[in-house]
Amino acid sequence: MSPAAKLPRWAEFGLLPAVNLLAALLLSGAIIRLIGESPWAALRLMADGAFGSQEAIGYTLFYATSFIFTGLGVAVAYHAGLFNIGAEGQAYIGGLGTGLVCLALGHWPFWAVLPLAVLAGAAGGAAWAFLPAWLQARRGSHIVITTIMFNFIASALMTWLLVNVLIRPGQQSPESREFAPNAFMPGLHTLLGRIGIPFAATPLNLAFLLALAASVLVWLFVWRTRWGYALRVAGINPAAARYAGIRPERVTIGAMLLSGALAGSLGLNELMGSQHRILLDFPGGAGFVGIAVALMGRNHPVGILLASVLFGALVQGGSQLSFDMPHVNRDMVVVIQGLVILFCGALENVFRTPLAALLGRGKPEGSNR
After folding, report:
1. With 229 labelled, which of 7, 179, 192, 240 sits at a CA distance of 20 to 30 A?
2. CA-to-CA distance for 20 and 346, rounded, in angstroms?
3. Could you tell me the CA-to-CA distances from 356 to 15, 16, 306, 345 in Å, in that order?
4. 49 within domain boundaries
5. pTM summary value
6. Over the stretch 277-320, which tens digit does the pLDDT of each residue have?
7. Is 24 a domain residue?
8. CA-wise closest residue to 304 among 214, 231, 368
9. What domain range includes position 171?
10. How many domains does the chain divide into?
11. Of 21, 27, 62, nearest to 315 (Cα)?
12. What is the pLDDT of residues 110-133, one digit of tens each?
């Protein structure tokens, strides 16, 4: 395999993702043209549906909040050399912990419920990531396989709990009773209204600010602490890490615990902030989208924030698009999202060599010729 062409940092983290995104949108436009609709009209509808009003922005950032949590979780594991495919299951079990706290302690004041809900969500996600991490570190079981399996186990466990244990008496829908009002995450429109800033009522809530805080903490941990340095060294070269006195097995377990804790925080947004009850499939695939978000954001918190907003815009703008263009249904919106994931993830290096040549950086990285 030939080494990848080297790009300047600004091109690596800015230009290359933009070119990949443009390619995905161009191909999406060609498909929309083939089904008889105008690509430009579709793009305008998506942009207006995602950013054209305060309500649209609120929904976009609400969806982005879940993607931030799962994207950060995937990124932390990636820096340790691990590909965590289990963010969906970790979000499921973490949300279960958050929901149980809200059900049990909803009569407490919100300021007392919130920290316990945060801790329960993080603990649930971390606990669900622990066994795959231990199997990888101690038994050599591949983290990709075990985390995928744990996604299915989490889904089956939640189905059983909601059908047989947590279901509200007298109803057939597999969901718990509603949380007490003290366990509701305050909406951002409410918080902004208290300081005199009007904003449309949307599901966007305090969890968005918690996601931003988590992004800052992840950046500080990975790039400004010795534990983060050990994590990155073990991810790049386990043999060198062991020679330097770092135990890769311990790093593997620690990184996966932190990864699961971040993914498990999704319940703060979805359950406390929006649904106000525990229900089936509340992650809604956000754990899998988090993989694309982390890859597109180059596993850096700033990139993850931008990629999360992009995917939040695709979800919200896609809803508007499918409503206003009858021939562009929800399946077509999923195709557009899939193309963005394809070009920004699996095919992210397709345009690297042409860009390197264009910028005068045509030599492959590691080549002396």
Report:
1. 7
2. 11
3. 11, 10, 24, 19
4. no
5. 0.91
6. 999 999 989 999 999 899 888 899 999 999 999 999 988 988 88
7. no
8. 214
9. 79-284
10. 1
11. 62
12. 999 999 999 999 999 999 999 999
